[in-house]
Amino acid sequence: MPRSILFQVTTPLGYRVVLTRNRWRAIIRFKHPAVASYEKEVRQCLRSPDVIRASAKDPDVHLYYLALENRCLCVVVARGRSEEPDCFVVTAYLAKRLKQGDELWKR
Q: Sheet holding 72-79: strands in order across?
């Protein structure tokens, strides 16, 4: 796959999201090491989330949530450069509750 893509999925909102190996490494090494073993769940969260919300700070940034055992997984997605049709994973982390923002989709 080009640009060392780890995976790409189509979300319930109808757009594709790409996660590159470099982005995943940055997330699990520097930002949120606790999600290192959650690669499969990140993909599942994008493909079949429980809730999708628009960020309260930037409505073009979407927060995908998937309930896990005692927390929820949040995957943050944003649009790439204007010449790239796909969105990309900004980060992923474990959260105790959902952040504020308009609800865009719910299972």
A: 5-10, 16-20, 87-95, 72-79, 62-67, 51-54, 103-106
Q: Which of 21, 26, 15, 41 is nearest to 105 (CA)?
A: 15
Tell me whether strands 72-79 and 5-10 are parallel, antiparallel or unpaired: unpaired
Strands 103-106 and 62-67: unpaired
Tens digit of each residue's pLDDT (9 = 90 or more) over 36-86: 999 999 999 999 999 999 999 999 999 999 999 889 999 999 987 666 678
Task: Please give, one letter per residue, the 3-state secondary structure of 26-87.
Answer: HHHHHHCHHHCCCHHHHHHHHHCCCEEEECCCCCCCEEEEEECCCCEEEEEEEECCCCCCCE
How would you class 79 by CB atoms within 10 Å of its CB: exposed for 0-12, middle for 13-18, buried for 19 or more? middle
Instruction: Copy the structure tokens of residue 62.
Output: 């979407």
Closest to 74 (Cα-Cα) out of 99, 37, 105: 99
